[in-house]
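Fig. S4 source data, part A: sequence.
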Amino acid sequence: MVCNPCGFKGMKTLLVGVLLTLASASKAEWDALVFSDVMASHVDGEHFSEKNVKPSIDLFVSGKKGPLLVLMEGFASEKAQHMERFQLGLNVTDSSRFWLGRHHTPFGYWHTQYHHGTYLQTSASRPALVELGGAGGILPSHTTGGLFEVEVESQEAAWHYAVSLGYSSQLSTSGGGHHGGGAISLNDFDLLNPKAGDHDMSAAFRLAYLPSALEETQLGAFWMQTDITLNESARDDLGVMPNQHISLDIAGVFANVDWSAVRLIGEWYYLETEVPEQSIIHRSQFSAAYLQLEYSHNERWTPYIRFDHTSGDEGDPYLHLLKAYPRSGQALGVRYDIASRHAFKLEYTYREFEHSDSGRWLLSWSTAWP
């Protein structure tokens, strides 16, 4: 996705336009949330400077008038401004909706539950497996197309279904990644600068089971097939034709189990990859998982620990391209809620990459308004 002042101006204009439309519409219901975050990071052995302190803001807006729905999310930091989500929806029934636009690709637990508002998640960082594509993650974060969602209740339990079909990401090796992804990252379809020819298709299906519709515990599985196009620089690096792409087949399971004071979040994914290079298609498989354990000591203090691990990744051609992805890691941290919707988080993470390893400190102040 390309970041530019015109795109930021367009995003602001669109946000203001939708807000005014919702506010003036007769009998319309609308809501807005603002998430802000100031993150300070320090990698062991490196020099700390003001560039290590990164503020960001995330605006979430939703509106409803009769069966019609609108959902928008805009993200802005010092160096990047993006329309993260823009969806126009229709309530098909009381428990099902159809959306058109740019939406979260439906997979796993963390990705669907916590996205850009870091206040919502306990930890300061995301697990490597579900890191945002624009921040060096290995999975496309957004799809632009159609999304169908259904909730089915059975006594106290509930089933959630989601089906998505649309444009996927492009792999860029010449910069342009947002959320700190660096030179090599996955760039999603840009609604403010659409180039459909630069993106291929993705399909995903997600199923979640909630033993109690009123509680947080849920178990689920998903499947996704996506074709990732390559920008010109990536094609030159791999020596491939413009019509060649990376193909991913992904299946996974996830669980969020809440025992009041103790909470366990875990996900396991299996990936089959096809990466073109010269006249050869490299095929490979690997799996990745994380497990995070949280303990709510009281209403304010929540210490946590997380383990990330990737298996069978030795020599995988897809992971070799995405060098910012850590192959394994451990995180230890604590969250302190200082007031209503204000939280401090301190975290130390040790990460192992393909050819190196490092420790990283994170300190954040995150909020949600109102």
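Fig. S4 source data, part B ends here. Helices lie at 5-24, 110-113, 232-238, 317-321.
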